[in-house]
């Protein structure tokens, strides 16, 4: 559904800052990443989003294209970030049809609530494969293009490049591994890996002008992630526990992305931009979903009543 501008971007940015640029995004049909891409498209970029679900990805691409008349947004479905060849093929098609990859958003992720007792070895591996291996696959498939783009769009720190910016990647992470969070072992381990990956990219590719950063959203309203984590009254309590007293909006993550990708982010490399209203500093030891710590774990009960539930074999 076409969205009003104020749902995905603030008024502070200049139209056209991403003219003639191309963004490649995994997990692009998700609520957060689609808003990031929509904002970049609004400001001039063309885009390629990839996802596992063909219909969802293609429909989202059409929808994002409504953000700017004349934009080109490719939606490539049946792409699983766990499969390098599948990502590489999508990147090749993006470059063939749109001409380049100037920006990358590595956003594909998997999540569900489960205690270690409930978490089979395969369940742990599924999230590691999507988040960590998937981010690495995305990096490996796009980095040659980012290096080219960075070389074309250099900035000396004072004079903006006449052709704008390029050669930038952001990884979408989380904050739960800063303190640890029960029922989120798999995601905590995976996101720690994603952060480490971004930091290494910043060191190894910074000398070539590529920047790599992490955006760590806190609780963002109406996302797939929160549907999987929060239920009922617990949502109200967890909103109240955020120092700013509410969940964030996807627009607030999109704004952080523009900050990093545009001229305002020229010297930002190897950083983590936490956009969470101060929430992680208040992390309460409960997953924010009514599974009260430690009572829930001691009760021997299993997680029920949230989206994405599944019974593991082992
Ligand atoms: C316990 C579960 C489970 C659950 C799946 N499994 N869901 N175990 N509780 N709720 C187990 C399965 O039983 C299986 O193990 C193994 O995980 C793999 O499951 P599959 O369904 O075969 O895998 P797959 O189809 O590849 O799905 C991957 C997935 C799924 C991660 C399990 O949830 C998914 O596709 N998620 C993508 C969408 C998503 O999660 N979006 C939210 C991202 S939000 P066995 O042993 O039976 O073989 C986000 C925010 C992070 O990441 C920050 C939060 C604060």
Describe this entry's structure for a reader.
- Helix 2 links the parallel strand 2 (46-50) and strand 3 (73-76).
- It is globular and about 60 Å long.
- It is built from ten helices and seven strands.
- It has a seven-stranded parallel sheet, sandwiched between helices.
- With 314 residues, the chain is of the alpha/beta class.
- The chain has one domain: 3-Layer(aba) Sandwich (Rossmann fold).
- The chain has helices at residues 31-42, 54-65, 84-98, 121-152, 176-179, 185-205, 224-229, 233-240, 250-261, 295-299, and strands spanning 22-26, 46-50, 73-76, 103-106, 168-172, 211-217, 272-275.
- It binds hexanoyl-coenzyme A.
- Hexanoyl-coenzyme A binds at residues 109-112, 114, 118-120, 122-123, 126-127, 130, 174, 176, 187, 224-225, 228, 308-310, 312-314.
Structural domain tally: 1
Attached small molecules: hexanoyl-coenzyme A
Q: What name does the CATH topology carry? A: Rossmann fold
Identify the CATH architecture.
3-Layer(aba) Sandwich
Percent strand equals 5-15%
- For the termini, the CA-CA separation is 41 Å
* Poorly predicted segments: none
CATH class: Alpha Beta
Rounded radius of gyration (Å): 19 Å
Mean of all residue-level pLDDT scores:
93
* Topology, number of strands: 7
| SSE string, helices as H and strands as E | EHEHEHEHEHHEHHHEH
By DSSP (H or I, 4+ residues per run), the number of helices equals 10
Helix content: 40-55%
| General shape | globular
Query: What is the makeup of the main sheet?
Result: 7 strands, parallel
The main sheet orders its strands as 3-2-1-4-5-6-7
């Amino acid at each position: 559904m076409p969205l009003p501008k104020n749902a995905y971007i603030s008024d502070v940015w200049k139209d056209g800052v991403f003219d003639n640029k191309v963004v490649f995004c995994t997990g692009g049909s998700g609520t957060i990443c689609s808003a990031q891409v929509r904002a970049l498209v609004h400001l001039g970029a063309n885009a390629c989003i990839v996802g596992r679900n063909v219909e969802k990805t293609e429909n989202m691409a059409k929808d994002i294209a409504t953000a700017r008349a004349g934009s080109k947004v490719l939606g490539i479905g049946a792409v699983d970030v766990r499969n390098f060849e599948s990502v590489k093929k999508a990147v090749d098609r993006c470059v063939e049809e749109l001409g380049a990859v100037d920006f990358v958003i590595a956003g594909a992720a998997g999540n569900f609530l489960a205690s270690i007792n409930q978490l089979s070895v395969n369940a742990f591996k599924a999230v590691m494969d999507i988040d960590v291996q998937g981010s690495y696959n995305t990096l490996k498939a796009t980095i040659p293009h980012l290096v080219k783009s960075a070389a074309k769009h250099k900035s000396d720190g004072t004079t903006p490049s006449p052709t704008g910016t390029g050669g930038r990647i952001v990884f979408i992470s989380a904050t739960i591994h800063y303190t640890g969070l029960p029922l989120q072992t798999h995601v905590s381990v995976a996101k720690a890996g994603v952060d480490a990956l971004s930091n290494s990219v910043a060191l190894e590719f910074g000398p070539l002008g590529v920047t790599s950063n992490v955006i760590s959203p806190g609780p963002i309203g109406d996302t797939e992630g929160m549907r999987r984590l929060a239920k009922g009254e617990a949502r109200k309590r967890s909103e109240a526990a955020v120092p700013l007293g509410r969940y964030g909006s996807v627009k607030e993550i999109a704004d952080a992305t523009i900050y990093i990708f545009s001229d305002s982010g020229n010297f930002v490399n190897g950083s983590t931009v936490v956009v969470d209203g101060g929430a992680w500093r208040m992390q309460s030891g409960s997953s924010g979903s009514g599974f009260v710590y430690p009572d829930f774990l001691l009760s021997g009960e299993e997680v029920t009543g949230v989206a994405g539930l599944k019974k593991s074999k082992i």
